[in-house]
């Protein structure tokens, strides 16, 4: 049997008695982050085998189904709130349903319903958008369609992107009423209400931290300010952010970044950058890399390897790794960003071959890698251009 258990969104006392009984009675627990789950189990003196689960890692789905087929009692939990609601879970539940494995769903905490209840807006029905797309144009389109239903609109947002979202709302939906609920049920729980301008004013000198739920309400159908033709495109918000990732951010991702930048040109609507999974700022970009790029018309540059961070990943629209192993690592680090993580060759439609690491090798190896990388980058840019 598979039991789906919502867990506290902050305060550990919000766990239900039924959830605790299920956790004590199961054979193993599938979870998002073993550290978060261990913290919850330790608080209630529960000791169980726990395994990491992600919808984006097929092996974890198969592993979970394997335990269920063995007749084990399996619990699935998220880091906080109800699994599947902008959290992992739907794939294993779907597979279990298809195989006639019993699935039990327990009720419990949810940030979206807590924020709606506390917003002060009528919430007899509402629209939930989860996490919005990263493109400014797509954000406007999603909000416009949702608000046209004349219901409160709830969504989750990263603290790193909250001010950007509020800026878009201020420009395009200035009359909206907004409630920002931050760190619900935790020590520093905070509620901020007002229109976008006033909420931004309250946040302007602060670094926003923690988990954020936003509720928007217009009361009646809200139109984007200005004629439709004037807001069909938002150049300053529609600029896509392309991030190339390799191991140390000294060779492959650097070549990809600068070559892509040269091909795309200044007015491409792309912001192209790179980072490393394990970047060492003391390492230098090899001279052969600069030589190969110079032959393609790239000016001399100085670069300090940049470490990949959650903030950098979340603010990127497309993240391209050099190898399948790097892609798997990225999916493990950032499971919520799976829809934008690919290998260069995969996204470019050139198969799924790895782009080998030439670091420490000779000029011939660097040249071979660069030729492969150029083909991949060209295909990536062509695909992005067709996609608009």
Short description:
This protein is an alpha/beta fold and 388 residues long. The protein is built from 15 helices and 14 strands.
The largest beta-sheet arranges its strands as: 3-2-4-1-5
Oligomer status: single chain
Write down the CATH topology of the largest domain.
Rossmann fold
Second rung of CATH, namely the architecture of the largest domain: 3-Layer(aba) Sandwich
Low-confidence stretches: 220-237
Shape: globular
- Tell me the helix content: 25-40%
CATH structural class of the largest domain: Alpha Beta
The Rg value, from CA coordinates, equals 23 Å
Mind telling me the CATH superfamily name of the largest domain? Answer: Response regulator
Order of helices and strands: EHEHEHEHEHEHEHEEHEHEHEHHEHEHH
- What is the average per-residue confidence, as pLDDT, rounded to a whole number? 90
Strand content: 15-25%
Count the strands? 14
Compute the separation of the termini in Å: 46 Å
Integer count of domains: 3
Annotation field: number of helices: 15
Major sheet attributes: 5 strands, parallel
Structural class: alpha/beta
């Amino acid at each position: 049997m598979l039991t789906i258990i919502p867990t506290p969104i902050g305060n550990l006392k919000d766990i239900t008695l039924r959830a605790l009984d299920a956790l004590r009675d199961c054979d193993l627990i599938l979870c998002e982050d073993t550290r978060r789950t261990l913290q919850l189990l330790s608080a209630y003196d529960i000791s169980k085998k726990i395994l990491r689960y992600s919808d984006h890692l097929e092996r974890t789905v198969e592993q979970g189904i394997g335990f269920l087929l063995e007749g084990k009692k399996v619990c699935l939990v998220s880091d906080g709130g109800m699994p599947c609601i902008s959290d992992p879970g739907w794939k294993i539940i779907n597979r279990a349903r298809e195989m006639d494995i019993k699935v039990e769903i327990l009720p419990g905490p949810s940030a979206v319903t807590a924020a709606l209840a506390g917003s002060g807006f009528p919430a007899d029905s509402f629209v939930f958008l989860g996490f919005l797309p990263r493109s400014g144009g797509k954000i406007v389109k999603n909000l416009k369609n949702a608000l046209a239903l004349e219901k409160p609109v709830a969504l989750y947002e990263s603290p790193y992107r909250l001010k950007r979202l509020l800026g878009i709302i201020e420009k395009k939906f200035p009359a909206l009423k907004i409630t920002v609920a931050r760190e619900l049920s935790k020590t520093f729980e905070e509620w901020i209400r007002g229109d976008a301008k006033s909420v931004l004013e309250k946040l302007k000198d602060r670094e926003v931290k923690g988990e954020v739920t936003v509720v928007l309400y217009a009361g009646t159908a809200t139109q984007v300010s200005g004629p439709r033709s004037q807001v069909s495109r938002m150049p300053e918000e529609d600029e896509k952010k392309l991030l190339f990732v390799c191991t140390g951010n000294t060779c492959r991702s650097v070549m990809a970044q600068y070559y892509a930048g040269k091909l795309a040109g200044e007015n491409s609507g792309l912001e192209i950058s790179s980072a490393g999974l394990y970047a060492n700022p003391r390492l230098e970009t090899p001279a052969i890399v600069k030589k190969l790029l110079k032959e393609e018309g790239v000016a001399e540059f100085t670069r300090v390897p940049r470490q990949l961070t959650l903030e950098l990943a979340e603010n990127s629209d497309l993240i391209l790794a050099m190898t399948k192993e790097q892609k798997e690592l990225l999916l493990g680090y950032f499971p919520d960003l799976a829809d934008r993580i690919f290998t260069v060759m995969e996204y470019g439609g050139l198969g799924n071959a790895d782009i080998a690491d030439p670091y420490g090798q000779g000029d011939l190896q660097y040249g071979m890698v660069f030729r492969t990388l150029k083909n991949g980058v060209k295909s990536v840019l062509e695909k992005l251009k067709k996609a608009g």
